[in-house]
Specification:
Elements: E1 17-19, E2 24-27, E3 36-37, H1 52-64, H2 72-76, H3 82-99, H4 104-121, H5 131-139, H6 147-167, H7 192-200, H8 204-216, E4 232-234, E5 239-245, E6 250-255, H9 258-271, H10 290-303, H11 319-330, H12 341-348, H13 352-360, H14 363-366, H15 369-374
Antiparallel strand pairs: 1-2, 2-3, 4-5, 5-6
Helix pairs in contact: 3-4, 3-6, 4-6, 7-8, 8-11, 12-13
Length: 377
């Protein structure tokens, strides 16, 4: 051995230690050889070599909670089962939900998909699980024909295993290298005729909700349905909306068109200015929920006879958001002068990459007018 070679330093038992490969802090429970990741109060991993003090505080909290010493069952247990992996991740998501760092919709989606997965192969050990099991599980659900649904289901399973592997480094991840279905571009949008038929087929309350969705592009139930009178800002140039996105946990301020501004002032005059009052309400005075909104749109689709139409049968409340994106790119409200993907991303609360993948990538393949306009022809 070379004289100048540095000796390997043993990890201290009973103290937090840093792993450069994941840029995270861990501890090793007494009597075991596994590594357990440390999390801060918000449920996020403690990262960065400089955060040694924060890691020690997180470890102190683990000890205070009684999760420091493993039980005899934990010491002597054999290979972990798939059901244990899923259960541990659901518990983790539940803690984050209580702390407000995870949305209710995502939590329910994770619980639903992981419970379905455990019914199929929960009794297998992690070492026995193969990618073919997961693929067959996806294909065994005829109602999951959409690649978006398959992607969401697979993402939940992969997230559970990634979390468990980070928590217990002695287990090999059987899903490493498994690819998710490609994201599909959002090509469905309402025509002017479709939009008018929707307004004629519903009441004023839901019609206002759809109108605002089409003219602003907000996510229907996580953004638009939660908009309050406090989020309406009046400026010399027009009305601004302050929008909180639970998906990204960020707040953005966006301008709205004059038609939407007029509707906003009208609704605010009707509901009052008491702080926290929902702006877009249903006929009972409550906020629009995802369940109620989806059922209402499904009923409208049946009443309008769109179920047998190859295009319109795919319409949903979320199509309002896609319609806004397509109209902005096509210059629908701006004499044919479309906006850039970067501007669209800022208005919709997406990153430019996500906006391009969802809307811009296929735009030139299906909608040629903006391309001709850009060339001056």
């Amino acid at each position: 051995m070379a004289e100048n070679a540095e000796s390997r330093q043993r990890r201290s038992r009973g103290r937090a230690w840093y792993w450069q490969q994941t840029d995270s802090w861990y501890f090793t429970p007494p009597g075991t050889k596994k590594r357990v990741r440390l999390f801060d109060k918000s449920g996020r991993p403690v990262r960065g070599k400089e955060n040694a003090q924060q890691a020690e505080m997180a470890l102190a909290q683990v000890k205070a909670d009684g999760n420091w010493l493993p039980t005899p069952d934990q010491k002597n247990s054999g290979a972990s089962q798939v059901a244990k992996v899923c259960s541990r991740f659901i518990e983790h998501c539940g803690v984050r939900l209580e702390r407000g760092t995870l949305s209710t919709g995502y939590y329910k989606e994770v619980v639903r998909y992981l419970n379905e997965f455990c019914l199929y192969c929960g009794a297998l050990t992690v070492n026995e699980l193969q990618k073919g099991h997961v693929q067959y599980w996806l294909e065994s659900h005829p109602s999951w024909s959409s690649t978006a649904t398959q992607r969401n289901a697979l993402s939940s399973v992969m997230a559970a295993f990634n979390f468990y592997i980070e928590e217990d480094g002695s287990v090999r991840n059987p899903l490493t290298g498994m690819e998710k279905p490609a994201q599909c571009p959002r090509l469905h949008s309402f025509s002017d005729e479709d939009e008018q038929q929707l307004y004629d087929a519903t009441d004023e309350y839901y019609g206002n909700f759809l109108f605002a969705g089409i003219y602003t592009g907000l996510r229907p139930f996580t953004e638009l349905a939660r908009l309050t009178v406090d989020d309406v800002l009046e400026t010399e140039r027009g009305i601004l909306w302050r929008v909180y996105a639970s998906k990204t946990r960020k707040v953005r301020t966006i301008p709205v068109r004059s038609e939407v501004a007029e509707l906003t002032l009208k609704l605010r005059a009707e509901v009052g200015t008491e702080p926290g009052t929902i702006l877009f309400r249903n006929s009972r005075g409550g906020p629009w929920t995802k369940v109620a909104g989806v059922q209402r749109f499904r009923k409208m689709r049946e009443d309008l006879g769109w179920g047998n139409d190859p295009l319109r049968k795919h319409y949903a409340t979320y199509t309002c958001r896609h319609t806004f994106a397509h109209r902005m790119l096509a210059g629908y409200w701006n004499e044919g002068e479309g906006c850039s993907v970067e501007v669209l991303a800022e208005l919709m609360g997406d990153t430019p990459k996500v906006a391009f993948d969802h809307y811009g990538r296929e735009w030139g393949q299906h909608y040629q007018d903006p391309l001709w306009t850009a060339l001056g022809l």
